[in-house]
Amino acid sequence: MDPDARPAHRRLRPMRGLDVLHRALYEIDLPGPAGPVRYTVEVDTDRDWTAVLYADGVLQTEADLPARLPVPGGVIEADHGMYGVSRMHFTAGDGRERRLAPVRGTLEDLRGRFAHRHPRASRAIGWAAVAVLLVNLALAAPQALELATEIPRVAERFGTFESPVDLPWWLNTSLYAAGAAAATERVLTFRRNRIVDFETIWTEA
After folding, report:
1. 204 falls in which pLDDT band (50, 70, 90)?
2. CATH no. for residue 94?
3. How open is the CA angle 194-192-94, to the nearest 5 degrees?
4. Dihedral through CA 62, CA 72, CA 74, CA 36, nearest 10?
């Protein structure tokens, strides 16, 4: 984005109403020359996948994700997946990392407070998300392989493969919706596993 196109002294807009559905805000306090400075990173999915950095509510810079945003003492590293922010960490000059905290009122903050108030229910939701993703993975893998072998070059080299899984459209749709919900739950709680979350290619198709 052209820096000259940014409004001068643009300030961070407070969370309002349905903003929770498309805005993610994370914050961290870092030392400044006159005292602590609160740095906030905004990612708004209604716009392009861009990380916008504010210092005490005033715009500093912005960059396309994945982004490295320079701040005193290190950088803020931000990245995303299809279902939301997947990384939001401050990395100090010595390599130590600290995750930024969700701003109060965001969906990530609401999910965290629910986990604090209802730990058992939160764990049950987390395990349910894992189960959904693993089931989808088992069903998606053979279908993905069949699609891959339909590519002429792949078929010529490796042959074709017919998936033993042939699901009706309504079940495919249900699995898509359940997989999307489970993947979103994993993103909101900053959980990531190479095997479990590999399933998201099914719901991104």
Report:
1. very low
2. 2.40.128
3. 105
4. -100
**Residue located via tokens 């803020």:** 76
The b-or-e profile of 123-156 (16+ CB within 10 A means b, else e) is eebbeebbebbeebbebbbebebbeebeeeeeee
Report if residue 109 sits inside a domain.
no
Lookup: tokens for 17: 């109403």
Instruction: Name the strand (E) or helix (H) holding 78.
Output: strand 74-81
> For the whole model, what pTM was predicted?
0.70
**Phi and psi dihedrals of 12, rounded to 5?**
-65, 130
Counting the structural domains of the chain, the total is 2
Query: What are the tens digits of pLDDT across the range 152-198?
Result: 776 777 777 677 767 777 777 787 788 777 777 777 777 765 555 55
- Mean pLDDT for 85-106 is 90
